[in-house]
Design goal:
about 400 residues; alpha/beta; Rossmann fold; six-stranded mixed sheet; five-stranded mixed sheet; 14 strands; about 20% strand
């Protein structure tokens, strides 16, 4: 199944049924009077968070959803039948945005959470409502009201406590395989993961947290290189970032420079995101066989980065050091959750931080999308970009807004 994290859908709530003008016609009942019933209500449109769904792919193929209109009223003061509501299932972590106003209608963060996104129209009134002492035979009835019509943007951000960031082939997928039941593809040759992977890290009885492997982060990602920042938005909901660094890169690059690339891309994309608590993971220690050389290398990396936070050494391939990381993470997350419950001010500050992150991420993601469209337009017109850049293939390495495009070079 393809991983789709954005979709545009049109929803139309049902119109209300019409009221009718009717009069009682019955033997031995002269001048029976008005008995027109009201119209039924149109169906509402809801979204519901479903933990069995993990992608918005269904909404790429069916893009319009219409609820049925209510029945018209009947004689004998019988109201028309109201239409059934319709429910659209979305993954947990989906944000619903009105494309016309850019208003965030809701955030689906809990299992079975339900949100009304389009209200059905009320039914019209039958002529019974208009009778009076001076108008005993009203012939007036009203039409039903129209249901709401909205064009909505569905944005999926995976709900995870910890996000894994690092250059391709740093060992992120292998790490999440070691500490959870997730099974992202790993192999003994270099390649990059194309979609986010989620894993539940189970520490023990009633102790667990969710970890997300975020792909596509390379130098220039904040400006659209590679997969760009398409998946970086998924770390907007995390409490911690694990920065995984390969201490012995297969291409011979400097691990210190590689770590700085990731830090710079986070800062360019979102300063708020870069300020999230980070833990440095020095990975692939099994590639250095001499203990003294390993200590010198790790100490050098930490010193050059001027890193003041937590540091762990791991060999994800051998499973060494990963338990210490997951227990440390669990303790930190539990302390933060307890503090949020005990200190309302801290909980409000956390909520405000996540809201700022959401705004920053959405703004920057849209800015990159606009830059991509400008590049496409410039290519069609045979001109350079507005900022003076020369067009080349690097401007079009992303997914063309529809699916991941992989280009293999000989």
């Amino acid at each position: 199944m393809r991983f789709i994290d954005e979709a545009i859908v049109t929803v139309k709530a049902g119109d209300g049924g019409n009221g009718i003008a009717s009069f009682r016609r019955e033997k031995y009942v002269p001048r029976g009077g008005p008995d027109g019933g009201d119209g039924g209500s149109g169906g509402d449109v809801y979204v519901i968070a479903d933990d069995n769904t993990n992608t918005l792919v269904d909404y790429r193929y069916t893009r319009r959803y219409d609820a049925m209109r209510g029945e018209n009223g009947h004689s004998k003061n019988c109201a028309g039948k109201g239409s059934d509501d319709i429910f659209l299932s979305v993954p947990i972590g989906t944000t619903i945005i009105d494309t016309e106003t850019d208003e965030v209608i809701g955030d689906m963060t809990e299992i079975d959470q339900t949100l009304l996104i389009a209200k059905g129209g009320d039914g019209g009134l039958g002529n019974t409502h208009f009778k009076s002492s001076t108008n005993q035979a009203p012939r007036k009835a009203t039409s039903g009201f129209e249901g709401e019509l909205k064009v909505l943007k569905l944005e999926l951000k995976v709900v995870a406590d910890v996000g894994l960031v690092g250059l391709p082939n740093a060992g992120k997928s292998t790490f999440i395989r070691q500490v959870s039941a997730a099974t992202p593809k790993v192999a003994d040759y270099p390649f990059t993961t194309l979609v986010p992977n989620l894993g539940v890290v189970d520490i023990g009885r009633h102790r667990s947290f969710v970890m997300a492997d975020i792909p596509g982060l390379i130098e220039g990602a904040s400006e659209g290189a590679g997969l760009g920042i398409r998946f970086l938005k998924h770390v907007a909901r995390t409490r911690r970032l694990l920065h995984i660094v390969d201490i012995q890169p297969i291409d011979g690059t400097d691990p210190v420079n590689n770590a700085r690339i990731i830090s710079n891309e986070l800062e360019r994309f979102s300063p708020e995101l870069a300020n999230l608590p980070q833990i440095l993971i020095l990975n692939k220690t099994d590639q250095v066989f001499d203990e003294e050389e390993l200590n010198e290398l790790c100490t050098h990396i930490v010193a050059e980065l001027d890193w003041t936070g937590d540091v762990f050494r791991t060999s994800t391939l051998m499973g060494e050091g990963t338990d210490a990381v997951k227990y440390h993470l669990m303790n930190e997350i539990e302390r933060e959750r307890e503090r949020e419950q005990e200190e309302p001010e801290f909980a409000e500050a956390q909520k405000a931080r996540f809201e700022r992150l959401e705004v920053e991420v959405r703004r920057n993601t849209e800015a990159q999308r606009e830059a991509y469209r400008a590049a496409r337009k410039a290519q069609r017109e045979g001109t350079d970009l507005p900022n003076g850049d020369i067009l080349d293939n690097d401007h079009f390495d992303d997914d063309d807004e529809d699916g991941v495009e992989v280009v293999y070079a000989p």
